[in-house]
Amino acid sequence: MTELDLWNHLWMASGGQGAWFLALGFLSWVGLRAGQNMYNNANTPVIMKIAGTVFCLFIANAWIYNFAFSEWNANGVANAMVSIEAMGETLSPYAAELISATEPGAGFSLMPDVLQGLFVLSILIMSVLPMWIKKA
Q1: Which long-range CB contacts under 8 A does 86-91 form with residues at least 24 apart?
Q2: Which pLDDT does position 1 carry in this prediction?
Q3: Predicted local confidence at residue 35, as pLDDT
Q4: Does pLDDT of 61 surpass 90?
Q5: Which string of DSSP letters, residue by residue, matches 69-119?
Q6: How many CB atoms lie within 10 A of CB 76?
Q7: N or C: which end of the chain has fewer CB within 10 A?
Q8: Distance between CA atoms of 106 and 83, rounded to whole angstroms?
Q9: By the 8 A CB rule, do 84 and 1 touch?
Q10: Could you give the CA distance from residue 8 to residue 2 in angstroms, rounded to a whole number?
């Protein structure tokens, strides 16, 4: 396997994760709209509030998985680049940057970094909270 093969793998996987990112953006918008509609309608049944909350929690979970798979993929490619460098292949400066910017060989982790966590938390607050508070 060459460095170019690894870059191709990284970008192909990133394309799939980008498609998920767009889909999650749309589904987050749906959750935000649902929350706003329930906030504006005082007669929303509790079962609808529960269903809306479960939907938004599912979307938050999917965001965390998307972030985790993106990081895991980059870490795996960086680890493979370290391996081919150890076998004597010369890597490009871009590969060296990827290696230094990631944690080569790190296992899969669902723990988001601070910005990712704040992003998911903000979506949850803006979508779920309006479902359960009364309009002033």
Answers
A1: 89/2, 89/3, 91/3
A2: 85
A3: 97
A4: yes
A5: HHHHHHHHHHHHHHHHHHTTPPPPHHHHHHHHHS-TTPPP-----HHHHHH
A6: 20
A7: C
A8: 14
A9: yes
A10: 10
